Amino acid sequence: MQEKNVATVPGIDQGLTRALREKGVLRVDDLLRAFDENSLGEFQKPWGAKTQKVGKAAEKILRFARAISSGEEKLLQTPALPSGENYVMFDLEGLPPQLDELDKIYLWGLQVFGKKGGDYLGKIAGIGLEGDQAGWHEFLAAAKSIFDAYGDVAFVHWTHYERTKVAAYVKRFGDENGVAERVLKNLVDLFAITQDSIVLPIPSYSLKVVEQYVGYKRSQSEYGGDWAMAAFIKATETSDEGRRKELLADILTYNREDLAATWAVFKWLGTKKVN
Q1: Per-residue DSSP letters for 41-92?
Q2: Are residues 53 and 138 in the same domain?
Q3: Which of 90, 144, 200, 242 gives 20 to 30 Å between its CA and that of 61?
Q4: Burial of 119 (0-12, 13-18, 19+ CB in 10 A)
Q5: Global pTM?
Q6: Tell me, what's the pLDDT at 275?
Q7: Are residues 84 and 20 in the same domain?
Q8: Do 120 and 49 fall into the same domain?
Q9: Of the residues 72, 106, 127, the one at which a domain ends
């Protein structure tokens, strides 16, 4: 089965996959039979023109491999989730430099979940520098309205992307009222919390994989970051106003469901306690 392929173990990159295959380690169970933490830590993998040891990553790799092999999750510690009654789920959609010279965030998505949930706030940026700046300021206004209504609430996101981009936009356009600084202070990376607290029998810790594991289901048959980028580019290039609105509405639905999926994982993690 594909999920038993050694290349699907989180932490095993392409170079390590090639090196393992040269040793006849093709499947997850092969890896578990061939290595313990010490021997895998000493194992050499390609690194540019040279090689380097797997090192400390060996422990985490073997944890994931055992979970995939057994099909059972393993709780390492109680997830270090922030406490509160309400939480902002936060997700950005961006165009990389090869697609837009600005390296631009084209959609800033926020929504409050919890005891007193709020409406979805998806702010789509316009074309060009002025549109990019307008999108940033609309995001700051939305974040300020949340702080005004909910106080010092956590902004929960998946991976480091949101932190990196908010910091970059502060440098690009400034943070006159200190809202972005407050957002940065309150950011909570749910991806890191998940990886640190629980080993899952899945081939990836991407949100799209983890959300399915916890039972979240989307309404769209097509979705994903690459899909959203392509849809946004089509929306900016089409002269059909009806088609543009349809594409943007689909992108907003995708982003809104990203937020709902993040909340679903957050709630699921909240049920996990070390006895």
Answers
A1: HH-EEEETTEEEE-TTHHHHHHHHHHHHHHT--EE-S---PPP-SEEEEEEE
A2: no
A3: 90
A4: exposed
A5: 0.88
A6: 81
A7: no
A8: no
A9: 72
Domain count, the chain: 2
Query: Letter for the amino acid at 167?
Result: A
Q: What is the CATH number of the domain that holds 31?
A: 1.10.150
Say if residue 27 is in the same domain as residue 118. no
User: The domain containing residue 12 runs over which residues?
Assistant: 2-72
Cα distance between residue 63 and residue 105, in whole Å? 35
pLDDT in tens, 179-225: 999 999 999 999 999 999 999 999 889 999 999 999 999 998 888 88
Same domain assignment for residues 83 and 68: no
- Cβ-proximal residues to 174 (8 Å cutoff; 6+ apart), any chain: none
- Which pair of tokens denotes residue 86? 């309400």
Residue 2 is predicted with a pLDDT of 47
pLDDT for the residue 8: 85
- Do residues 104 and 62 both lie within one domain? no
Write down the pLDDT at residue 99: 66
HEC states along 136-200?
A: HHHHHHHHHHHHHHHCCCEEEECCCHHHHHHHHHHHHHCCCCCHHHHHHHHEEEHHHHHHHHEEC
Q: Extract the residue ranges of the chain whose pLDDT is less than 70.
A: 1-3, 99-101
